[in-house]
Amino acid sequence: MTAAMWTRSALAYRTSFVLMTVGNLAITAMDFVIIVVMFRNIHSMGGWDFHQVAFLYATSSFAIGLADMLVGSIDALGNRIRQGTLDGILVRPAPALAQMAADRFALRRLGRPLQAAVILLWSLSGLRVHWTWDRVLLVPGLLVCGTAIFVALFVGGSCLQFWASDAAEVQNSFTFGGATMIQYPPTVFAKELVAGAVFGIPLAFVNWLPALHILGQSDPLHLPEAFRFASPVAAALALAAAGLAWRAGLRAYRSTGS
């Protein structure tokens, strides 16, 4: 209901809504412009051609954009804790996490996943790939699982604010910073960083590992083939960990008495 209220509020001023959505789309598109400029001077990046890197960009941008639209409002948790307004959410007969995600829901954030979807369709049209059934199914699968992983990172990262209410930027380093990293091929990064994205924060499962199978690229870490199909498992584990972190944060929270 809260999300619907904010959506109706935004659509009440349709010209403003359209302009803000287009502006959001244009700002996020600048990341892809940088890639375009780079490929005017190079033919490949770490063994990946332009359409392959565009595929990475599009899948990463779609996942982070959709997750940001769904639960991005949760980064205001620290402000609510400082202002004492979190108590009002906790006494309502609805899950606190759902209320925080719906608070000030911004439909204008739809611009980023829409722009990513357009680039994804364009990149798919230029890929030199033998499309088998498993490759076809991996594309929508990685979009869903990638979004779920970023949702988990948003929620899990926000839980730091239960103990440090000004830790929103730490969360952003793993969400938006991580999304920027996986827009580029894993072969341009140190193997230690790639390993951290596999066995630590599961960013590699958003698109790197599935893309290796879809695009026929070699794995810099020489992991078992099963890892390329493990995004659903990684997403489920990430969501479970985020849920546990959220419950731990709520237990640690001390009411202001307001």
Structural class: mainly alpha
Strand content: under 5%
Low-pLDDT segments: 1-7
Q: Would you count the extended β strands for me? A: 0
Over the alpha carbons, how many angstroms does the gyration radius reach? 19 Å
| Net shape | globular
Q: How would you spell out the order of helices and strands? A: HHHHHHHHHHHH
Percentage of helical residues? 55-70%
Can you characterise this structure?
- Residues 1-7 have low confidence and may be disordered.
- Helix 8 (133-158) packs antiparallel against helix 11.
- The chain has helices at 2-11, 14-38, 50-71, 77-83, 86-90, 96-102, 111-126, 133-158, 168-181, 191-199, 208-215, 231-252.
- It has twelve helices and no strands.
- By secondary structure, the protein is mainly α.
In short:
With 258 residues, the protein is an all-alpha fold.
Keywords:
globular; mainly alpha; single chain; 258 residues; disordered N terminus; 12 helices
List the helices and strands and how they pair.
Elements: H1 2-11, H2 14-38, H3 50-71, H4 77-83, H5 86-90, H6 96-102, H7 111-126, H8 133-158, H9 168-181, H10 191-199, H11 208-215, H12 231-252
